[in-house]
């Protein structure tokens, strides 16, 4: 079956890239011809009003709250700047993810007419953010007989649930879907309330694969000595001190999985996906404030601490650690104190049993949609 995967733009987000790879790889192992729609965000404001509002907000965040954000009138990168920044991450995408031609959201109907997919899988990641709906409910697909599935949809505070007109439209569109599943437990009840559907709680696509599936498609020339792998999306001095405390306690060096402030200043590209996977795999401990950083720590059976990142969606962190009884590995900003930290290894026997069960149930959901 020819399947179109509609997810978030790939860009330089490691979790986004790897969940797209995993979704496509899983469908291909099931025997389908899966292709990811190469959708991109336009790096510009849609109106002068929104541009001014964004500019004033950034000024307030920088000067009043001390955040490291751009104070330029136009904060968006040029195509040349973006191309350089994403140079290394793009290599993994080109090798391992089959894509349509590059489009923007308003061109999705062109892809529908061009590819005539037998089925669409929407997801995973935060495809239910307000800005991506109703596209994420395939409003541009009018052909009869097309199989429509949502796999592991997620959303943060800016969900379409807060937009009554979109809720009404998406509720009607959801009737055309043969299966809808969500990544966070709380979204099961919300799907029932707002969409009138019984959604299934499934794993993030990255957890449908084994660590060997990732190691098989990556090639890093970095060393093999143990490290503390730090994957921090929103750096603070408290997080930095905590990472250094862990590294000092274990007697190993820190390797950062994201661009540092110095990298940004010098215009250096993001580290490659191959190096990201390699560094996580060789680590003896992981500290992250990323959802997918947490996912891969669990998948690769690493001792870790996940620093809950409410601004990026607290529920997805809570739902994930609860699923595997790892609530004690989730910290909040006021808990980054060394004297209460447990650096012992995690007993992954029970975790892996749960992972195996949830993986089978999640794959069963997908297979049942294609029967």
Description:
- By secondary structure, the protein is of the alpha/beta class.
- The protein has 2 domains: 2-43 and 78-208 and 357-369, 3-Layer(aba) Sandwich (Rossmann fold); 211-355, Rossmann fold (3-Layer(aba) Sandwich), CATH 3.40.50.
- It has 14 helices and 13 strands.
- The strands form 3 sheets. Strands 2-1-5-6-7-8 form a 6-stranded parallel sheet, with helices on one face. Strands 10-9-11-12-13 form a 5-stranded parallel sheet, with helices on both faces.
- The protein is globular, with a radius of gyration of 21 Å.
- 35% of the residues are buried.
- The mean pLDDT is 92.
From the structure above, extract its key features.
371 residues, Rossmann fold, 2 domains, five-stranded parallel β-sheet, 14 helices, 13 strands
Present the secondary structure layout.
Blueprint: E1 2-6, H1 14-29, E2 33-36, E3 39-40, H2 48-63, H3 79-85, H4 87-96, E4 103-104, H5 108-115, E5 119-122, E6 147-153, H6 164-174, E7 179-182, H7 186-195, E8 200-201, H8 211-216, E9 227-231, H9 237-250, E10 254-256, H10 261-266, H11 273-282, E11 283-288, H12 291-299, E12 304-307, H13 314-323, E13 330-331, H14 348-369
